[in-house]
Amino acid sequence: LGRLTGRAPAEPQRVLDDAMLESLEELLISADMGVETSLKVAANMAEGRFGRRLGATEIKRLLADEIAAILDPVARPMPLFPKKPQVVLVVGVNGSGKTTTIGKLASQFRAAGKSVVIAAGDTFRAAAVEQLQIWGARADVPVMTAPEGSDPASLAFDALARAEAEGADLLMIDTAGRLQNRKDLMEELAKIVRVLRKRDPEAPHNTLLVLDATTGQNALEQVRIFREVADVTGLVMTKLDGTAKGGVLVALADRFGLPIHAIGVGEQIDDLQPFDPAEFAAALTGQSAAQGAGGAA
Amino acid sequence: MFENLSERLSGVFDKLTKQGALSEADVATALREVRVALLEADVSLPVARDFVKSVQDKAAGQAVTKSVTPGQQVVKIVHDELVQVLAGDDADAANLKIDQIPAPILMVGLQGSGKTTTTAKLAKRLKDREGKRVLMASLDTRRPAAMEQLAVLGTQIGVDVLPIVPGQDAVAIARRAKQQASLGGYDVYMLDTAGRLSIDDELMSEVEAVRDATTPRETLLVVDGLTGQDAVHTAENFDGRIGISGVVLTRMDGDGRGGAALSMRAVTGKPIKFVGLGEKMDALEEFHADRIAGRILGMGDIVALVEKA
Ligand SMILES: Nc1nc2c(ncn2[C@@H]2O[C@H](COP(=O)(O)OP(=O)(O)OP(=O)(O)O)[C@@H](O)[C@H]2O)c(=O)[nH]1
Ligand SMILES: Nc1nc2c(ncn2[C@@H]2O[C@H](COP(=O)(O)OP(=O)(O)OP(=O)(O)O)[C@@H](O)[C@H]2O)c(=O)[nH]1
Ligand SMILES: [Mg+2]
Ligand SMILES: [Mg+2]
Prior knowledge:
- The structure holds two protein chains of two kinds.
- Chain A has eleven helices and ten strands.
- Helices cover 45% and strands 15% of the residues of chain A.
- In chain A, helix 1 packs across helix 2 and helix 2 (35-46) packs across helix 3 (56-71).
- The model of chain A is unreliable at 290-297 (pLDDT under 50).
- By secondary structure, chain B is α/β, with parallel strands linked by helices.
- Chain B is built from twelve helices and eight strands.
- In chain B, helix 6 (146-157) links the parallel strand 2 and strand 3 (160-161).
- Chain B is elongated and about 70 Å long.
- The mean pLDDT of chain B is 90.
- The interface between A and B is large, with 46 and 47 residues.
- Bound molecules: guanosine-5'-triphosphate (GTP) (2 copies) and magnesium ion (2 copies).
- The site of one magnesium ion has 5 residues of chain A, from helix 4.
- Residues 98-99, 122, 128, 174 of chain A line the site of one magnesium ion.
């Protein structure tokens, strides 16, 4: 039939049975979606289709649609408020990409005509301030610093005062990486939030949790605890330019429903993209870009 | 949050009466739960699959000790096998090969995995424990302030760092480190490299060139202990392309289950030499297979229980 219509031959069809369902679950598990979410998504896709004959492309498209449906409601850019300065606090575990993401975001906001101030709230890690200063220079945004070892909460407070005085649109605050099971470091973060609120009860207006795409199921704990301690308002996932699929985002969307604002796809200043559920789902299920686009249509 | 393996298994085995030996069907049922437990602990799927298969062969037909349940018995078998795979047969994995003078140690891995921090921790360990003279060099020409980071750490721990010469590429810096180490009478020189994706052909070639210029005695892959399913790709690609001699797992002070340890070990066959347990310069420990095994299975006490029985 394929030859008659001048199209590629139709791909072989397989009956959707238990064995196929299991291999689909495994595809999703391999993308870090977690056992529970993978089983659920595969089962939803199979509902009403059990025993039917389907081609591989069609199956992947159906799975991707199922995933995109979970992600659609959370795909939202970081909201901008009329409030000046809008305070954006950036948090996360060590090495997830916080500082780099601040550089990228600052550059985007600058390009959108906003005035931005950055506060180098990582007063702990070696050369963290220098790293952020270079990003500030790249994005053409001033960076407020404090000496190594000083209290990040008081830097945040001072930075807010300065951003107010200068009439800046946005204040972005970098923080040191911290594992969510470290009580002392999480308390330090809670203190930053408390101190900011002394000056502006609504601050921080956005608290972004930066997640590394290579992270497995521990991301669930990261979101749970950071949200509890610092009222996380949105997520950014970095390093999606690698081999990791970041499937834990699906489990996160399902469980917490926090907005996903953007994804990091490289180390350069413009390697930050809006989160696109259809594209993400296509990559997760192993579809090519063209198939993904078809699935999204 | 995760149901641990013994809870899972007790559910499965409640329905079974105690028999003299584990039947094949019992084992199959139990191992389905084991597989899920491994996946929830972030063991990569192909590795979990192979592991379960190897346990299956060992478990069927084993006599059940009177005082424990069949579920507990399976947990013990799984745990022992896990320890065995994780430990391999390198009892002294933490003894780095630094026989040649000066001995090069190359540190590689993905972005943000902990290479620079681990470089400094290892340098401090070699200096403090073995009285070695160590030189550290940053070959990271990309990440902002990467070289400054290593320089600050060097000052903190009292270890020399190769002076920064702007504009040099990674291979040129590596050659300079080698020369400086030879002339300066250092025992060891450590090469910290930029983070790179395992599929980044250009950067993987760069580190190959560094390897060829220095012939490292150890090439350590530094991996985030919170890594999920991607561990197999990272392990395969870095080992395949550069050839690693061991693994360091960082951020094991977190509450991750550490399944990446099994994935790394199974895919590369190379020992896990150290675990990073914090950001401080002394937060580095030798790898203990039994601790990680208990952690991956989300348990520990039950193994001791079976051991006593
Ligand atoms: N490939 C890739 N690398 C990234 C991305 N985002 C950040 N990185 C790299 O990841 C590493 C860590 O990034 P940082 O921004 O320093 O991370 P951080 O969360 O500030 O780290 P700490 O402050 O030490 O906790 C750096 O080498 C970055 O260049 C991304 O989207 N893709
Ligand atoms: N909690 C914890 N943090 C660690 C550990 N090892 C490293 N870190 C932190 O992880 C972050 C990244 O560490 P780096 O040493 O800069 O990582 P890297 O691999 O050199 O990063 P790039 O050069 O950007 O690729 C820093 O905040 C470190 O302090 C560890 O074992 N535990
Ligand atoms: Mg940072
Ligand atoms: Mg580094």
